Amino acid sequence: MTSVVTVSGYKQHELGLFKQDDPAIGFIKKALEKELTSFAEEGLEWVVISGQLGVELWAAEVVFALQTDYPNIKLAVLTPFLNQEENWNENNKELYEMILSQAEFVDSISKEPYNNPQQFRNKNQLLLHKSDALLILYDEENEGSPKYLYEGAKAYQENHSLEIRQITFMDLQFIAEEEQQRLLEEYYLNDN
Questions:
Q1: pLDDT tens track for 89-132
Q2: Strand blocks (E) in the chain
Q3: Taking every pair of C-alpha atoms in the chain, what is the biggest distance, in angstroms?
């Protein structure tokens, strides 16, 4: 049974997504929803994120939407250090604060503000240690910040039980094409 899933992936700037209403974010959320629903059917209890911008905050929004059908799913936000949102713009801070206010559990792994990269490594180790699975939006051909968690998960998996479910850009392309097809069918059905 998979009861704790860590979700991570690219930060929004790594994907070139700067507006919350970008259609690409909808495709990412749909991919996350599909995988998290699958985990929910297997007894998912906790979704854990570190609260970084991009995939993690979008996953939180998906969790909140899924709680209607799966009220047992809870969100935990374990930030790598205190005040990670300190230098974010106001819109991002607002989204972050809204997510923290709705999460069932919020804490910081390091009880200090950012002071060195080891805080990120400690976060990755703790998240992997506490999880049954990792759901990650990452494509090896497009390296970025998720590389470290993904590689750490692969290494961790050698000696521990950890499922890794990866969403790639090909998966997102497939979802975009499915959605386009669905909209076309809807258009023609409503037009007749």
A1: 999 999 999 999 999 999 999 999 999 999 999 999 999 999 99
A2: 4-9, 46-49, 74-79, 105-108, 133-137, 163-167
A3: 62
Q: Tell me phi and psi for residue 10, to 5 degrees.
A: -65, 150
Using a cut of 0.85, tell me whether the model's pTM lies above it: yes
List the structure tokens of 22. Answer: 């970008």
Give the HSE-up count for residue 94: Cα atoms under 13 Å, Cβ half-sphere. 4
Alpha-carbon torsion angle 120, 122, 127, 132, nearest 10: 130
> Cβ(25)–Cβ(56) under 8 Å?
no
Q: Residue 17: left if φ>0, alpha if ψ -120 to 50, beta else—which one?
A: beta
pLDDT digits (tens, 9 = 90+) for 69-100: 999 999 999 999 999 999 999 999 999 999 99
The amino acid occupying position 23 is P
Residue-level pLDDT at 191: 67
Place of tokens 């386009």: 180
